[in-house]
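REQUEST
  id: r-88c1
  op: predict_structure
  target: DUF4159 domain-containing protein
  payload:
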Amino acid sequence: MKQILSIFFTFLFFTINAQDVAILKYNGGGDWYSNPTAIPNLVDFANTNIKTNIAKIPQTVEVGSQDIFNFPMVFMTGHGNVYFSDDEAENLRNYLISGGFLHISDNYGLDKFIRAELKKVFPKLEFQEIPSNHPIYNQTFKFPNGIPKIHEHDKKPAQGFGIFYEGRLLVFYDYETDLSDGWEDEIIHNNPKSVRDIALKMGANIIEYAFKN
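RESPONSE
  id: r-88c1
  status: 200
  body:
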């Protein structure tokens, strides 16, 4: 087991220096490929404003692939069903506890599926709401009230949830806000520039936090 973890950390050492992010491809029929302009726009914003050096065109990585260990951070979104096999859940768990980071953006309809599948990944862990004083809200950009509201779904408050393992935040889940909608090209959702700027700043904070931790 120690030898396996050593290999994982080696992967992550080179990954963190490369500072690349990937889009997570999952099974179950959900549209993992939704919001195609979101990550490229966020990457461009992060490279400009927090001086990251992320590849402008994000790669796609499958949940069960060893290639996931080539990225310090993976991003996941969608509207529908998510399914992780036992092997995929184990691979994702190993990736996360070895230093990886997963950001999930609920694009409306993902919630009940992702909560069930993450119980396969961490059966004994629960989502915790992240308080506004957590470092993820206090990186280059400050969000004293916690996660901002970007896109309206059910007139519920925006919430940021996390899964912590041995004190480390390794999954961040934005719920009832849909940050990734705010990252997309303006013409797609007609969000004003002020709203898009807020969404991009929060996204940049998530990247900054993931790369530091």
